[in-house]
Task: inverse folding
């Protein structure tokens, strides 16, 4: 295949699998923080994932606040993505490399979900006059466990919360220093 076709295929596989992984992660996080089931964002994630999650829930039920069926679906989605990406790049499929890439890619997906949710919360807090919307309330509930510790150390400056910037930088530093080297090691 030509390099242009490979790049296009790489992009398409990456974006399709990333978007679906993010929806599955959102489902997992929304259940973890006990978000409102009737919220539009909750309903969106349920509708897009129920087809795959419901059968798995019979084997891996929801226990102690953790939706194991959603985690299983996430691992399957990321595993398929990792294998397809390795095939597109021409990397030899070795079990150890696949496991390392699966671990790193799964963590990157979680970090990316938080990255984008925190950007949404920050932009909303900086620019929206009316701060309450049902979707924003749920996003705040998901991001609050990560934002709260940082907000203790970084107070707002003239009413502007700078803690999202710190968290976003930390997310990218973790990704670049810890997870990207793992992906390179896996030949991804």
Result:
């Amino acid at each position: 295949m030509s390099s242009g076709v490979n790049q296009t295929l790489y992009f398409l596989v990456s974006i399709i699998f990333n978007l679906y992984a993010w929806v599955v992660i959102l489902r997992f996080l929304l259940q973890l923080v006990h978000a409102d089931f009737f919220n539009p964002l909750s309903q969106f994630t349920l509708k897009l994932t129920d087809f795959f999650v419901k059968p798995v829930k019979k084997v891996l039920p929801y226990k102690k606040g953790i939706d194991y069926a959603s985690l299983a679906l996430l691992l399957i989605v990321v595993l398929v993505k990792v294998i397809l990406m390795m095939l597109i790049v021409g990397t030899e499929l070795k079990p150890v490399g696949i496991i390392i890439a699966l671990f790193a890619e799964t963590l990157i997906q979680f970090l990316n979900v938080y990255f984008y949710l925190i950007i949404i919360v920050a932009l909303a807090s900086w620019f929206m006059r009316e701060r309450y919307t049902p979707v924003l309330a749920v996003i705040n509930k998901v991001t609050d466990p990560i934002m709260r510790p940082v907000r203790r150390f970084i107070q707002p400056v003239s009413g502007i919360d700078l803690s999202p910037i710190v968290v976003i930088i930390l997310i990218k530093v973790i990704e670049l220093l810890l997870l990207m080297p793992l992906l390179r090691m896996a030949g991804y």
The beta strands are 62-63, 66-67. The first strand starts at residue 62 and ends at 63. Residues 3-185 form one domain. Residues 46 and 182 are 32 Å apart (CA to CA).
